[in-house]
Amino acid sequence: MNRTYNFSISSTQFIAPDGNLIKPLPATVNEALLLKAYRQMVLIRTYDQKAVALQRTGKLGTYPSALGQEAIGVAIGLAMRADDVFVPYYRDHATQYLRGVSLTEMLQYWGGDERGSHYKNCPQDMPLCVPIATQFCHAAGIASAFKIRGEKRASVVTGGDGSTSKGDFLESLNLSGVWQLPLVMVINNNQWAISTRREVQSHGETLAQKAISADIPGVQVDGNDFVSLYDAMLTALERAHSGKGPTLIEAVSYRLSDHTTADDATRYRSNDELKKGWDLEPVKRLRDYLHHEKLWGSEQERQLQTDVKQQVDEAVSAYLEIEPEAPTAMFDHLFETLPAPLQAQYDEVRRTHQS
Ligand SMILES: Cc1ncc(C[n+]2csc(CCOP(=O)(O)OP(=O)(O)O)c2C)c(N)n1
Q1: Which of 194, 257, 261 for mutating ligand 1's site (highest number of atoms within 8 Å of CB)?
Q2: What is the pLDDT of residues 60-112, one digit of tens each?
Q3: Where are the alpha helices (DSSP H) in the chain?
Q4: Which residue(s) pair with 12 in the sheet?
Q5: 40, 91, 246, 340: which sits with the fewest CB atoms below 10 Å from its CB?
Q6: Looking at ligand 1, which residue's alpha carbon is closest to its atom 3?
Q7: The whole model's pTM is what?
């Protein structure tokens, strides 16, 4: 029997769970970058906790927490160029914030107001995608446009481990290889797709190896280590910008929260497993590293906590002051010409709203 193909998948980690360096930092990572990344991770964690609290008090709709996945969002956001396009899924608050979406816009969207997706400062990025995996097709389409126009821009798309089982993901991956698209696909492998374990999702040892079928680079990184993903993102973006084609990155993390505020994870996973997840978490890890290097101390931490709390409180106040849209808006934005069968519903909504 002849062997026609052998493959291996690299797995990268720079900062260990105890905050110690495993190998020297890449040349692209300096102290200023790490301090910036840490501040952004703390800000997003604070925002995230507040968003969950708002949902619990009836002031926000169902909300997907990104607790434990802050390094992924921040690494993508800091690595991308302004004129790249980000195609997010629903756990990407950190990247969206770094791209210019305000905390108030995010709260507005999760509060059920679609005007929150009309991003003032980054109109080129796509709105959040709640259907699983459809965003990969959108991102491949955007990357195709960049390629056809000869623009040195990349399309960056994210999805969870569950999304890699969907046809939309596999079709986009395949197309990206055939057309050598300037596309970076990042899988946030947080081990669970609601109550479905990663092991049930795919028989493969890694999710990165799905790239082999499309003959494009596939790498696995520690998604709790900001440096690992930042470094992989820069390599993938450089490939995309210089016309060398797509990359699939699997960022291994752990979902520390419930799937959304509508879920109760204690029904399907053990406390022991959750505790192990907390031992790996990204915010403490980077803080420990900065402590070891004497770049961070308790006074700076206190000041940061005060600053981010104030920033989040201001965003929440601005959100709560937004005048709700008229209920008829849901008809206005969906149809240019209202289909006849919906006219009666429209009239009724208008009548009830006015009275
Ligand atoms: C097309 C589609 N099917 C089913 C759902 C219901 N659903 C919402 S989240 C989810 C699991 C997604 O898991 P994963 O891709 O691992 O992302 P995670 O939420 O864990 O970050 C499912 C099945 C959906 N939103 N869209």
Answers
A1: 194
A2: 999 999 999 999 999 999 999 999 999 999 999 999 999 999 999 999 999 99
A3: 31-56, 70-79, 93-99, 103-110, 134-149, 167-178, 198-201, 226-241, 271-279, 282-292, 298-320, 329-332, 340-354
A4: 221
A5: 340
A6: 132
A7: 0.96
